[in-house]
Design goal:
Two copies of one chain form a homodimer. Chain A is α+β, with helices and mostly antiparallel strands. Chain A is built from ten helices and twelve strands. Chain A folds into two domains: 4-138, PurM-like, N-terminal domain (60s Ribosomal Protein L30, Chain: A), CATH 3.30.1330.10; 142-302, Phosphoribosyl-aminoimidazole Synthetase, Chain A, domain 2, CATH 3.90.650. A seven-stranded mixed sheet of chain A has the order 7-9-6-10-8-11-12, with helices on both faces. The first copy, chain A, has a five-stranded mixed sheet with strand order 1-2-5-3-4, covered by helices on one side.
Chain lengths: 315, 315
């Protein structure tokens, strides 16, 4: 949920960790569970007028507040288990809370998460959720573990949530089916736990797409000190979005909550077999390169990326 | 940090827990660490204009945001270990963040806590912290474990933080020394980890005082299905507060972050020896009773408590 202009804040809160296995800097922090397993823990806040607009269906806010954290846990290769909720609201509103908790608990049920703690305060409407999950130490998916020549895989379709936001803001019009689908993607993102669980043991690195494909892939590249070469045509983009020339929604639009994974080329045939066998919605979009640069090409021609997304040398 | 009017919210978020050792309803939730130990986890939010006034020294906000969660962990008998921070602010402010993180990390250092995760968002100023600690299963201090005839113990002095808030709001005047001390108690609460660690193995139940002595003791009584008889003269109240006739600040004022503990009468002599040996700031204020009622007496005469604090039958 990190806003780009807020990256500076990382510098104030990142210290060397001694007791933790992995501190700030990935989708979730990691600490020891037992000799073979780690706990993954992630926290995310949704604020009114920033992460959702006023009068959004509270059921959907509840669902999404849980889902965005579950997404972080899944992107570590972990299985979500426990959650805590800290909610601020101007005054108690029973109808709102009833719908909100319904959405939250339905998401908990879907991902087998148990809500174990809560805090309620007065304040501007804000929902913070913390989720804990567990993962085998040898199958944890770190941002920093992408290897040169790894295939880059992406779950689901990209750009729908960003399209949904544009439609709500009346900045674009789309056919009814697309409108419904994209607002659904924005307000109640589908997570691909099944897909991730199927292939995670073959993967090296992963990140969930909350800031947008380009931004989040660049987080992997920076952390792994590598680059990537991606083909625009292979990025899973809804046909209507392509036809409307709105590919940028898939490249830079946030809130997809799909997952980017990297896996050795040697695993490609195994993954492709699973795609067919289990009908996985998974696309191979490119390859990790030695050159610390993100190159996205369209019919062999390099696309000029938005400022700040081309080079990933450590500053 | 639960506001009284928000108690109703509990009903929306409390479900039976299967995987957790203890869910919503105590200072922290508990889940298995290993065969003999539990993890305790707590989350609390501080909002501008609710939990701190605008222009409060960010160093102190940082310190307090961590301390109120550490306090919850200590009140479970646990040792704090890891923390996550989720901060919302209208726009990045380096000077503010520098001071805030200084306060936060100084508190982390004092209580041996490692910050392992963070999230930053745009929104009204709000700080959420989650703290994890560990505790031996057989020495965990639950609200629900107070036994009839247990002694009731309280750490430190009560009412100073509430006095500090009154002074800041110019609703009361106090001598300089008291003013300084009470504003310090409000803005940078001292936690009594040393005292709690010394006596916790002799105790049955505990809670930290965030809502006020009467409210928090009543949480123990409700959860343990017991009552209490307390002597006003034994409650540790600053002399000036007593002289000013402001005992209500100690009874109902929040934000003390002292701790109420209960322990069998059989442990009294052991605890008293420790008080003398280690110079603990610890007061014995009363006794747990069978009658589900909180009775506070002043020279043998029952004090009329504020509405809602007398009877604790389960509704």
């Amino acid at each position: 949920m990190m806003q780009i202009e807020f990256k500076i804040i990382e510098k104030f809160f990142t210290k060397n960790n001694i007791k933790a296995y992995k501190g700030i800097g990935d989708d979730a922090a990691l600490f020891k569970k037992d000799d073979n397993n780690l706990w993954a823990i992630s926290t995310d806040t949704l604020n009114e007028n920033v992460h959702f607009i006023t009068n959004t269906d509270p059921y959907k806010i509840g669902w999404k507040a849980m889902a965005v954290n579950v997404s972080d846990i899944l992107a570590m290769g972990a299985s979500p288990m426990f959650a805590l909720l800290a909610i601020s609201m101007p005054k108690p509103n029973n109808d709102w809370l009833k719908q909100f908790s319904k959405g939250l608990f339905e998401c908990c049920k879907e991902f087998n998460v148990e809500l174990i703690g809560g805090d309620t305060s007065r304040g501007p409407l804000s929902i913070n959720v913390t989720v804990l999950g567990d993962v085998k130490k040898n199958s944890v998916l770190l941002r920093s573990n992408a290897k040169i020549e790894d295939d880059i895989w992406v779950t689901g379709d990209l750009g729908l949530a960003a399209l949904g936001l544009k439609i709500i803001k009346k900045k674009i019009e789309a056919p009814t089916v697309i409108t419904k689908k994209s607002i659904q993607a924005l307000e109640k993102p589908k997570l691909n736990q099944f897909t991730i669980d199927k292939i995670k043991s073959f993967c090296n690195a992963a990140i969930d797409i909350s800031d947008g494909f380009v931004a989040d892939l660049s987080h992997i590249l920076k952390a792994s000190k590598v680059g990537a070469s991606v083909h625009l045509k292979d990025i899973p983009i809804n046909k209507w979005i392509k036809k409307a020339g709105q590919e940028n929604l898939a490249l830079y639009g946030g809130d997809d909550y799909q997952t980017i994974l990297t896996a050795s080329k040697k695993m490609r045939s195994k993954i492709e077999k699973l795609i067919h066998k289990d009908n996985l919605h998974l696309s191979r979009v490119g390859i990790i390169t030695k050159d610390k640069k993100l190159l996205i090409s369209d019919n062999g021609k390099e696309i000029k990326l938005k400022k700040g997304f081309t080079h990933f040398e450590k500053k």
